[in-house]
Write a structure and sequence with these properties.
The chain folds into two domains: 163 residues, Spore Coat Polysaccharide Biosynthesis Protein SpsA, Chain A; 83 residues, no CATH class. The chain is 40% helix and 26% strand. It contains seven helices and eleven strands. A hairpin with a 2-residue loop joins strand 6 and strand 7. Helix 5 crosses helix 7 and helix 6 runs antiparallel to helix 7. The model has no long low-confidence stretch (mean pLDDT 96).
Amino acid sequence: MHNRLSVVVLTKNEERYVRNALESTKWADEIIIIDDMSTDATLEICREYTDKIFTKQLINFSDQREYGISRASGEWVLFLDADDQLSPPLQEEIRQTLAADSEYSGFMLLRISSYLGKWIAHCGWRAPILLLFRKDKARIDGRLIHEKILIDGKVGVLKNIVYHHAYDDLSEHIIKLDFYTRLEAEELWKKGTRLKGLDYALYLFAKPVFAFLRKYFGYKGYREGVRGFLISVMTAFVVLLSYAKLWEKQKNEGMH
């Protein structure tokens, strides 16, 4: 039995890299684009590869991914970011895995990311991530950001690489962090987290410092030179800004 593969790609002004992503998956049974109001040439490029293009404003990532799954007709779904690219060995590994009708319900793929023009081997940036799964065995956990795919069944690991072009310049990183920290603050609010008393010292100072130390020393970010230092600082800044935006929301809601 042929296991059909649906590739779901989320896009938003991704003209720089989306062709690489689509070229590396054009052998799949279908490619589905969920686009968040792109204003550049993204959709023009996507139309060369698929007519299954859906426009949906991004409110949060769980909703966007669930919408993508709902549009997929294949037994298997592969989530790909628009700045991801499957290596040729991984393309072949996925084809062979699906042809073998495996006992697994999902697979982790090894993703390595580039930062400011260099592939990063440390900082926790070279890690397997669950991207390939049986449609009927998966659900999204509902987090607004850093959402997880929950699998009913066994999860395997494929050995070949997904290349991820994370950030080409610092401005891009800073702009995205503003958006991500807003969603993170909303997620904290939704979970009932509120700041009071000693929480301010913990969440606005201790946790950001710990986040930096964990990235820089625990995940050996120091071995990446200036890039590792910047990634570690940005990680700490994300923690600080997420809780600062939570505090701002509390203030605006009349809670001090």
